[in-house]
């Protein structure tokens, strides 16, 4: 298996990753000491899950006074009874 020092790996990372993806695994070494092995994934990484925004659209109703709900009670907690 090919051994690549860290400096070379940083310099040629794109090329090395492409080669690893094609099955040419390699080891990255620091000061001649093997540190990590780079190998291709057995299965490609799946695309991110679809966005969940809007999955409850039409199933919930937000009250018209949503932004002021409980305002009096909250003011009492902070300001006390007047």
From TrEMBL:
Q: Which InterPro entries match?
A: Antitoxin_Phd/YefM, phD-YefM_TA_antitoxins, YefM-like_sf
The lineage's top-level taxon is Bacteria
A Pfam cross-reference name = PhdYeFM_antitox
Please explain the role this protein plays, according to its UniProt record: Antitoxin component of a type II toxin-antitoxin (TA) system.
Q: Which family does it belong to?
A: Belongs to the phD/YefM antitoxin family.
Q: Any idea what this protein is called? A: Antitoxin
């Amino acid at each position: 298996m090919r051994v690549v020092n860290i400096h070379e790996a940083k310099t040629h990372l794109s090329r090395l990753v492409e080669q690893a993806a094609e099955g040419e695994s390699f080891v990255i070494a620091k000061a001649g000491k093997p540190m990590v092995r780079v190998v291709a994934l057995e299965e490609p990484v799946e695309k991110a899950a679809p966005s969940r925004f809007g999955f409850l659209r039409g199933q919930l109703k937000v009250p018209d006074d949503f932004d002021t709900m409980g305002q009096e009670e909250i003011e009492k907690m902070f300001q006390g009874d007047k």
